[in-house]
């Protein structure tokens, strides 16, 4: 490395994913990212089109490997991206045909960069103790918070203190809930008494008054030596200020809001979240998968993998309708595109692929004819077929 001696990546060991607030924040991001539409396309002459019958599409869209679905694959990828700031995918190629056979999430305990005959390689150690070494270029690697390290995303050190606070908060609230559920009342002894005497008097009071075997009537009798106050409110007191601070810090760090986590976001909030968090993630996936699955020659022919989400679905109904009307007016959208934007089933076939366009829009090639008029050669003949002298 040029800028750092750190060549080892180890997933965050602070048990961040075990904290409920962290998991809720990451889950809100991962659920939305998993609803992605990857496509194998080919660009050329300023246009691009889907590659028909592409083997990549079936793997990317439905079954990346025999043991998972596309949704689980991208959910896991997005989760590792947020929790570890690094996520790796291992493509498996057929040795005989060279065709892509599967894509696997890599969940190694550690990944160390090593030099093997002048080539940068990754030494991956897994929880089972198995170790695998392969060239770094054989992996698809995405991440975030790239700064100090030349290869890996930086650690989650800035949020460590908040994670520790959240863990302590959850444990203390659990202990408090147990205590509140167990304590039945407060027995106050009027005179100063040694600890041993206090414990004896407590035990005597419980035996005589609170145990059904000795107090079948359920009536508590005390004299002026005791003052017993029963506790009927079993609610656990929650320090709302501390809870709000922990949530705010964690949500800010992972790029979500409480509305996003609780699925109560407005169209404006959903659109901002998509543009600020999900779209950059998809852009990184598009670049990483294109570089990882295609050779330089194949990319030279315009082959790409693109990851898209339907951002128009996040807009307000009025804004969505306005945008779709404009696109339909200029003939830039199909019938199926409009239906999908409203979460409706597409028609499919030629009818679904049909583009609609208003007659008020003029073909650019013939704009001059409409605006300036045309020569007599293109005008219809006068009635009678002859011009008057």
Could you explain how this protein is built, in words?
The chain has 389 residues and is α+β, with helices and mostly antiparallel strands. Helix content is 41%, strand content 17%. The chain contains 13 helices and twelve strands. It has helices at 20-34, 55-61, 70-83, 157-182, 195-210, 240-254, 258-261, 267-293, 296-300, 317-329, 335-341, 349-353, 367-372, and strands spanning 8-9, 37-44, 47-50, 86-93, 100-106, 110-116, 119-125, 131-135, 140-143, 185-189, 226-230, 303-308. The chain has a four-stranded antiparallel beta sheet with strand order 1-6-7-8, with no helix packed on it. Residues 385-389 have low confidence and may be disordered.
The major beta sheet can be summarized as:
4 strands, antiparallel
Order of helices and strands: EHEEHHEEEEEEHEHEHHHHEHHHH
Runs in which pLDDT lies below 50 for 5 or more consecutive residues are: 385-389
Q: Would you tell me the structural class of the helices and strands?
A: alpha+beta
Number of helices: 13
* Mean pLDDT score: 80
Count the E strands: 12
N-to-C terminal Cα separation, in Å?
91 Å
State the share of residues found in helices, binned by percent: 40-55%
Radius of gyration: 33 Å
Layout of strands and helices, then pairs:
Layout: E1 8-9, H1 20-34, E2 37-44, E3 47-50, H2 55-61, H3 70-83, E4 86-93, E5 100-106, E6 110-116, E7 119-125, E8 131-135, E9 140-143, H4 157-182, E10 185-189, H5 195-210, E11 226-230, H6 240-254, H7 258-261, H8 267-293, H9 296-300, E12 303-308, H10 317-329, H11 335-341, H12 349-353, H13 367-372
Antiparallel strand pairs: 1-6, 2-3, 2-12, 4-5, 4-9, 6-7, 7-8, 10-11
Helix pairs in contact: 1-3, 1-6, 4-6
